[in-house]
Design a protein that fits this description.
232 residues, alpha/beta, Rossmann fold, three-stranded antiparallel β-sheet, globular
């Protein structure tokens, strides 16, 4: 696989472990990692902080003109932090209020066009891992490797609950379950770039897999696609 770089698109529902495997894979391969979900969360955070009415196309357009997003590698965490107008918002974007609002904001056509244009620009060169909900279908439809991740709903709820409890000990499992169910519905039924599995995406159900097991499995897929790309 030395010298052969491909584009890897990872899609799936919330709390299926997309970001985890994407970060691990990028680190193992020496690829760039882009968290597209963090971009939508950062936009949502800006809207909330500035009282933007996301049902108003004019207000949305004006707000997007004032938003600059970028990523910077964090040597301590060994992952990329997202910056909103030069502020590191990696932690604030994980707030429950942002989680509640990100799906309707991400469903707005203007917002998706804004984010997708930046994502496509970031991925012009090979050697990138990007995760989200429309990466293999809209952002990188020609990606050499597309992965669609799923997990048992109960497993997903517990994963998200444990993640959020660390910073919000008052959160309840019922609140997390409701949030995930609502986000699944919005993501799957929205008019703009709804979440669905690309025809050529490989299915990864990690309900009962360890992180190491799924990393090894996906690494095999990467090697296969890199070799196929080399012999074309």
């Amino acid at each position: 696989m030395s010298g052969i770089k491909i584009t890897i698109a990872i899609d799936g529902y919330s709390s299926c472990g997309k970001s985890t495997i994407a970060k691990q894979l990028a680190a193992r391969l020496g690829y760039s990692y882009i968290d597209s979900g963090a971009m939508y969360r950062a936009i949502t955070l800006y809207f909330l902080r500035n009282g933007v009415n996301y049902n108003s196309p004019d207000e949305v357009a004006a707000a997007l003109n004032d938003i600059h997003l970028s990523f910077a590698f964090n040597n301590t965490a060994k992952s990329s932090d997202i910056y909103l107008n030069d502020e590191d918002v990696s932690q604030p974007i994980r707030d429950m209020l942002v989680s509640e609002k990100v799906s309707p904001v991400a469903a707005i056509k203007q917002v998706r066009s804004f984010a997708v244009a930046q994502q496509k620009r970031m991925g012009r060169k090979k050697g990138i891992v990007m995760d989200g909900r429309d990466i293999g279908t809209v952002v990188f439809p020609d990606a050499e490797l597309k992965i669609f991740m799923v997990a048992d709903p109960a497993v997903r709820v517990m994963r998200r609950f444990k993640e959020m409890y660390a910073t919000n000990p008052h959160i309840t499992i019922d609140e997390v379950r409701h949030n995930l169910e609502l986000r699944d519905y919005i993501d799957s039924t929205r008019e703009e770039s709804p979440l669905h599995r690309a025809a050529d995406a490989l299915l990864l159900d990690n309900s009962s897999m360890t992180r190491d097991e799924q990393l090894e499995k996906v690494t095999v897929w990467v090697k296969d696609r890199a070799i196929s790309n080399m012999v074309r």
